[in-house]
Amino acid sequence: MQTDFIALYRGQTVADARLVAITAEPELVSKFFRELEAGTDRAKENDELADREALRVLRGGDDE
User: Fold this and answer.
1) Is position 26 within any domain?
2) Which of 1, 23, 48, 51 has the CA that lies 20 to 30 A from 36?
3) Which residue from 30, 43, 36 is spatially nearest to 3, judged by alpha carbons?
4) Angle at CA 53, nearest 5°, toward 47 and 33?
5) 17 found inside a domain
6) pLDDT tens digits, 33-64
7) Higher per-residue confidence, 64 vs 3
8) CA distance 13 to 10
9) In which domain, by residue range, is 54 found?
């Protein structure tokens, strides 16, 4: 059985990153991936915009 989950790490580098949040809540995981996919579709040719979109989704808001 597969379980989908989101883990959020924060740090100056990947090696320094520490886990700050994790969830397997089905509604939150589904919403995150739907919104991330929609943002990625809108930003396919602009990596900086895609990064900002991912952060917006993780923060759960409309701000940049």
Assistant:
1) yes
2) 1
3) 30
4) 110
5) yes
6) 888 877 766 666 566 666 777 777 777 765 54
7) 3
8) 8
9) 6-59
pLDDT digits (tens, 9 = 90+) for 10-21: 999 999 999 999
Torsions phi, psi for 10 (to 5 deg): -140, 135
DSSP string, 2-64: ----EEEEE-SSTTT-EEEEEE--HHHHHHHHHHHHHHHHHTTT-HHHHHHHHHHHHHTSS--
Number of structural domains the chain divides into: 1
Residues 50, 45: Cα–Cα separation, whole Å: 9
Residue 28 lies in a domain: yes
In a domain, 64, yes or no: no
d(CA 32, CA 29): 5
